[in-house]
Specification:
Layout: E1 2-7, H1 11-28, E2 31-32, E3 41-46, H2 51-70, E4 75-79, H3 80-86, H4 88-93, E5 99-101, H5 109-119, E6 123-125, H6 132-135, E7 146-150, E8 152-153, H7 164-168, E9 172-173, H8 176-188, E10 193-197, E11 205-208, E12 211-214, H9 215-223, E13 230-234, H10 243-251, E14 258-260, H11 268-273, H12 280-293, E15 298-300, E16 302-305, H13 312-325, E17 331-334, H14 352-377, E18 381-389, E19 397-400, E20 406-410, E21 419-427, E22 432-439
Parallel strand pairs: 1-2, 1-3, 3-4, 4-5, 5-6, 7-10, 10-13, 14-15, 16-17, 20-22
Antiparallel strand pairs: 8-9, 11-12, 18-19, 18-21, 19-20, 21-22
Helix pairs in contact: 9-10, 13-14
Bound molecules: S-adenosyl-L-homocysteine (SAH), iron/sulfur cluster and FE3-S4 cluster.
Length: 448
């Protein structure tokens, strides 16, 4: 069985795609292919966060139609958040689809394929059997130095614009021992950096013996695992960012000096309409607290432009907030009404032209600060986690800084899979060029 899988959306979807592949490798001795023409099973792991993301599903399925006509034995599956939302409707709209599965039922992919092959009936399973999926997934096999680990599923925050609570369901945290076991397994394969994932990851409360432990405690546990050099966690909701988590930045040097901390808007009026649960001042206070705990930290954020009712002044408040925080590389989107969310019922009174204009202004400002961060890095030495040789240049090593910037440099092969001290020399469009200095000594004091 050769499997082609295309993934849209967030890191949790990437994690799920890897896991689906693992199930198919284990149960069918499947192999992965990058070529749709030679695939026996094609899977789309979908995202419905914005309208455009959702549309891509059906256009992609349209492109796969000739493959199914040519070979009716080819199996086509739709997974992820669009599957969760649409379910059976996908079968109606796209007759070439053989099976549909939601984010909570990825572990059943092999059963769905077998059922389709044996009874010929098209299969749909988008149920929410809580945390079951993690108990039924095989061990991840990886050759990478970095790995994602989903530590919780779902979201209870119900921001007024967001579809995630509907597609991923209620928050459920994995027990400590399961997360630790998975990470230990990853370190044995050479993983040195983990990104702990959850849509609202700081509301993690995992079972630990007869109690529950929070994300700060989990970070301390993960930090104690031999082989782990770096820890990230995404995505943080500002409201759930506890004092204990702030303290973790003082106590755990393995926690990276970079935080994705989505604010969405700098206007109190809009934050309230978005039901984000914090004010601009509360957000800024958190930033100050975190910076006090870890002075060299950099922040990134997501922004929504053109939320219903956003005035010029609201937009200006967002621009001012960006000036105050000076974010590193960040993400911004035009508001997209999602069916079934409360904001979709608000009058969308900002014209597309204004939304586009605001987005351009905002992105120019973000680009300015991102460039400023890169320029500030020049001639300083940073620890870089080396992933391997860069595919494009061939002879340069490729790695990432704590702030997730790609650095290319000439260095010894032994650096692969380890941390190296690299001096940043040149700033290119999407990468930095550096000069290898030395291998990074564990627990070395470092000021980035
Ligand atoms: N859990 C994360 C967000 C995950 S979705 C958080 O709370 O920050 C990723 C990003 O998509 C969001 O931060 C938001 O900026 C954007 N987004 C979500 N719904 C959207 C919508 N309806 N229209 C436009 N952008 C949206
Ligand atoms: Fe969506 Fe809000 Fe949950 Fe983030 S916290 S996933 S924006 S509902
Ligand atoms: Fe998209 Fe679902 Fe992730 S909507 S952003 S794939 S949780």
């Amino acid at each position: 069985m050769r499997v082609f899988i295309k993934t849209f959306g967030c890191q949790m979807n990437s994690y799920d795609s890897e896991k689906m592949l693992n199930v198919l490798i284990e149960q069918f001795s499947a192999s992965v292919t990058e070529n749709v023409d030679e695939a026996d099973v094609l899977i789309l792991n979908t995202c419905s966060i914005r309208e455009k993301a959702q549309e891509k599903v059906f256009s992609e399925l349209g492109r796969w139609k000739p493959l199914k006509i040519k070979n009716p034995d080819v199996l086509i599956g739709v997974a992820g958040c669009v599957a969760s939302q649409e379910g059976d409707a996908i079968l109606k709209r796209a007759p070439i689809v053989d099976f549909v599965l939601g984010p909570q039922t990825i572990h059943r992919i092999a059963d769905l394929i077998r059922a389709r092959q044996s009874h010929g009936q098209r299969q749909v399973d988008i149920s929410f059997p809580q945390i079951e999926k993690f108990d039924h997934l095989p061990k991840t096999v990886t050759s990478q130095v970095t790995a994602h680990v989903s530590i919780m599923e779902g979201c209870n925050k119900f921001c007024s614009f967001c579809i995630v609570p509907y597609t991923r369901g209620e928050e459920v945290s994995r027990p400590f021992k399961d997360v630790i076991k998975e990470i230990v397994g990853l370190t044995q394969q050479g993983v040195r950096e983990v990104n702990l994932l959850g849509q609202n990851v700081n509301d993690y409360y995992g079972q630990l013996d007869s109690h529950t432990g929070d994300l700060a405690l989990l970070i301390h546990y993960v930090s104690a695992i031999e082989g782990i050099e770096r820890i990230r966690f995404t995505t943080s909701h500002p409201k759930a960012f506890t004092k204990r988590l702030v303290d973790a930045y003082m106590e755990e040097p393995k926690l990276v000096s970079h935080l994705h901390f989505p604010v969405q808007s700098g206007s109190n009026r809009i934050l309230s309409a978005m039901k984000r649960g914090y004010t601009r001042q509360e957000y800024m206070d958190k930033i100050t607290e975190i910076r006090t705990a870890r002075p060299n930290i950099t922040f990134s954020s997501d922004f929504i432009v053109g939320f219903p009712g956003e005035t010029d002044q609201d937009f200006q408040d967002t621009l001012d907030l960006i000036d105050a925080v000076e974010y590193d590389i960040s993400y911004s989107f035009i508001y997209s009404p999602r069916p079934g969310t409360p904001a979709a019922d608000l009058p969308d009174d900002v014209s597309l032209q204004i939304k586009q204009k605001r987005l351009k202004i905002l992105q120019d400002k973000l680009a300015h600060y991102a460039q400023q961060h890169a320029l500030n890095m020049r001639f300083k030495v940073y620890p870089v986690l080396v992933e391997g040789y860069d595919k494009r240049t061939g002879n340069l090593l490729k790695g990432r800084t704590e702030s997730n910037r790609v650095v290319l440099f000439n260095g010894p092969k032994e650096a692969i899979g380890r941390l190296a001290n690299v001096q940043i020399r040149e700033i290119h469009a999407n990468t930095l060029r550096g000069q290898f200095e030395s291998m990074y000594q564990e627990k070395e004091a470092y000021v980035g």
